[in-house]
Amino acid sequence: MASVKDAVKPDTKAKPGNKAPAGAPSGTHSKDLLIQLYKDMILYRRFEERVHVAYTTRRKFAGFCHLHIGQEAVAAGVQHALRPTDYVIGAYRSHTQAIAKGITPNEVMAELFGKVGGCVRGKGGSMHMFSKDKRFLGGHGIVGGQVPLAAGVGFAIKYRAEQDICVCYVGDAATNQGQFFEALNMMATWNLPVLVIIENNRYGMGTDIHRTTSIDHLWKRALGFDMAHSQVDGSNVLNIYDAVRSTGDEMRKKNHPHLMEIMTYRYRGHSVSDPGAYRTKEEVADYQARDPMLMHGKFLVANKMATEEDLAKWDEEAKKTAADAEDFADQSPPPGEEEIWQDVYAD
Ligand SMILES: Cc1ncc(C[n+]2csc(CCOP(=O)(O)OP(=O)(O)O)c2C)c(N)n1
Ligand SMILES: [Mg+2]
What we know:
By secondary structure, this protein is of the alpha/beta class.
């Protein structure tokens, strides 16, 4: 079993914004990768801004809608460090994770709108993006419910002697759920290839994590299971990419699970209808001032890999992709009545 001694040493002082990305060394990253990370982050942001307007102003869909705005570096950094055959499973804040895994913006938007062009033909909605082909296994609305499912995926990978890993995203508050502990125990006991990524955005709905959790750093959850662990400053997308890349390599070599805490921050409310009265405007502005996407753009310009004009052009392209996705979703029909029982139970 992986020992705690094998673990990457967590930076216990890490918190978003500790490290200034502009000017950070880029030796190990290709220019293509560095540019693609920016393009992906700006697409996720513009896509979800469009989703917000579609929900609030155009009233194109109802129910809950949880945006990932502010946390895009996690989806982008993680995805580029994975292999296409790796699995990803997430919670309900998963629109951008789904796009990162290869579900198209058109399919995600149409799914939000409840249309047949959606990735699950409009019958899942915001919290249930899914694609067997792309190996994106949800979208789950029960807090922490995806963690035992990820243990099952890890078990299947191991049983079939595959080289893949399963990334399981959880929120900070989800780490207080009983099933989180039970599933981590199984992952560690059976050495299942699951990379559990805690997106620590500091809040569970309107509650500060420190009001509900007895430990100061959530990577410590791994200690009770003698599980490899790490903590990543998510204010720099390259930190995330590097950490997942090296952790993935190690997991494939040693066949063990890993718990990674990524420090991040969401700018919008818990869901679209949350006025956010539990935190100050200054706190949000402080994080926005060192936004990982903007900092990465500055890094590209400072290192002469892009000009301000390039950044503006990629921004326009991202807006167009989001607008096209909305048009596609508008035009796609709703599922017919004859489909009501299809895809509900396994054949
Ligand atoms: C089992 C369960 N309990 C409570 C809820 C209500 N609920 C939805 S989201 C949420 C907070 C989860 O916060 P966190 O895990 O930090 O994820 P984040 O929203 O920050 O991404 C709660 C309590 C739920 N969906 N499922
Ligand atoms: Mg949270």
